[in-house]
Write a structure and sequence with these properties.
This protein is α/β, with parallel strands linked by helices. It has a single domain (11-252), classed as Alpha/Beta hydrolase fold, catalytic domain (Rossmann fold). Helices cover 38% and strands 17% of the residues. The strands form two sheets. Strands 1-3-2-4-5-8-9 form a seven-stranded mixed beta sheet, sandwiched between helices. A two-stranded antiparallel sheet has the order 6-7.
């Protein structure tokens, strides 16, 4: 039996006819998106912050999960939220952004906000041997934390290491995303920090150039590392997402 890590539960804030589906990142939890969800809820949106399969429980649960399971989590909650909303937006952090971009191609979403999203995994010579390595080294240590908001870092909820097998699944997911970015035709807002040391800033430029939509924009922030939804510039991020939603709701009606 598995149990959710306390404070890492999914959340639902019912509101108006415009819905926002919020998707957390790789080895993370819904808590990464909760402040953004509260902000959007206070503005009258219906907000669902989902939990991806095998996340926010135990790291060993990740060993049984495939990227399709993570996408199925998005699909399940997309149907739950969209049934009660006239229009639905997708917003994801890191791997959650990649999942939202894929979902934005397959489901009738009104727009996508992708934050700190990787175009590919960082270069590492060990990746050539990862199919063998995951048997010899089941997990990979995370780098030193580099939060700009130390207070948020104290109660951040994620797994302490990367399951090696799950890195293979992340690579496969990003390959699927790259192959389909040209098919994303809805509005997209990309947000990234110039100080992101986990997913380097050039990833946003690569995604932007590969998108098939002409209705795309980028926002750079500075005083943040990777988890920009919990960093000092989060209110700027939340406001940019809200402005994007308002602009495209008007265009879509």
């Amino acid at each position: 039996m598995t149990y959710l890590i306390p404070t890492a539960e999914p959340f639902y804030f019912p509101g108006g006819p415009i819905g926002c589906l919020l998707v957390h990142g790789f080895t993370g939890s819904p808590k990464e998106m909760r402040w953004m969800g509260e902000h959007l809820s206070q503005r009258g949106y219906s907000v669902l912050g989902i939990r991806l399969a095998a996340h926010a429980t135990r790291p060993e649960d990740m060993l049984r999960a495939h990227w399709q399971d993570w996408f199925a989590s998005v699909e399940d909650d997309w149907h739950i939220l969209s049934k009660s909303c006239q229009q639905t937006f997708l917003a994801g952090l890191s791997m959650g952004g990649a999942l939202c971009l894929l979902a934005g191609m397959q489901f009738p979403a009104t727009g996508v906000v992708a934050m700190s999203t990787p175009y590919t995994v960082p270069r590492d010579p060990r990746l050539r041997y990862i199919k063998l390595l995951h048997w010899l080294q089941p997990s990979v240590a995370k780098g030193s934390p580099d939060w700009h908001n130390p207070q948020a870092a104290l109660d951040h909820v994620d797994y302490p290491s990367y399951p090696t097998r799950s890195i293979m699944e992340l690579r496969a997911l990003l390959a699927e995303m790259r192959a389909n970015l040209k098919n994303v035709k809805i509005p997209v807002l990309l947000i990234h920090s110039q100080q992101d040391h986990t997913v380097l800033p050039e990833n946003m430029l690569a995604i932007y150039n590969a998108l098939g939509t002409d209705r795309k924009s980028m926002l750079w922030v500075e005083d943040s590392n990777h988890v920009i939804t919990r960093e000092p510039e989060r209110l700027r991020v939340f406001q940019a997402a809200e402005d994007f939603i308002q602009q495209n709701v008007k265009n879509a009606i």
